[in-house]
Amino acid sequence: MNNKYIEELSLNHWPSLSTLLYDGWLLRFANGFTKRANSIHPLYHSTGETLHKITECEKIYSANGLPAVFKITPFIHPEDLDSALDQAGYSVVDATSVQTVDLAHIRKPRLTSVQIYERPHDEWLNNYYKLNQVKAADRITMERMLSNIKTRTGFISLYDDEQVVACGLGVVEREYIGLYDIVTDARYRNRGFGEQMILNLLSWGKEHGARFSYLAVVANNAPALRLYSKIGYTENYKYWYRVKALIPS
């Protein structure tokens, strides 16, 4: 599988509120909520002069009250964009590992006390906001983004004695299930609940046609890396952001 394919899936599965196409670059906007949805994705063939395009992007984002943030993958166009941004004063943040797993041999979950909604649901949203401490000002934007996903979604909650202890989102498209918003209650971490929640979500994905899964994890998040490795995920490639000013990841 071409890794650029996974980048396209991730654009679909974590949609922005609006997208501007600029000579092969995708400029995404979502009121500043997450870098993924508020950054420039230079995925496709670029014909314009690089420094001019960088300047124009800065103007566009500034006009929308946002910093210009570039997502740098192995597939950027032009190939020297990362070095051009470095020379223009952009710093590297949030190096991230994109990982995949074949679902053919995924273990069955041991804990199955889960609720899966196929559309955004108030119960899931409220639990997720609580566990991940989402700011009230970002909640409307997040709900609009989740409602914009056009393929099958599974919003999962794992329970322990009727208490929600872990939440996550799976999005199925073209035989892949992408995992997003994976979070475990801080009081219940390191007890296997996150793993059990993910195994339930992957099982649900298989039932709906997924043969593989992908996810993105910040490269210095050692506990998450251990968890995903235990399930069977391995790294396909890395990406990072180039920024002059920071917004939440």
UniProtKB/TrEMBL annotation:
Gene Ontology molecular functions: acyltransferase activity
InterPro entries: Acyl_CoA_acyltransferase (IPR016181), GNAT_dom (IPR000182), Rv0428c-like_C (IPR056935), YpeA/RimI_acetyltransf (IPR050680)
Domain N-acetyltransferase: 90-249
EC number(s) stated in the UniProt entry for this protein: 2.3.-.-
Superkingdom classification of source: Bacteria
Pfam families linked to this entry: Rv0428c_C
Keywords on record: Acyltransferase, Transferase
PANTHER family linked: ACETYLTRANSFERASE, N-ACETYLTRANSFERASE DOMAIN-CONTAINING PROTEIN
Stated name of the protein: GNAT family N-acetyltransferase
Organism, as annotated: Paenibacillus shunpengii
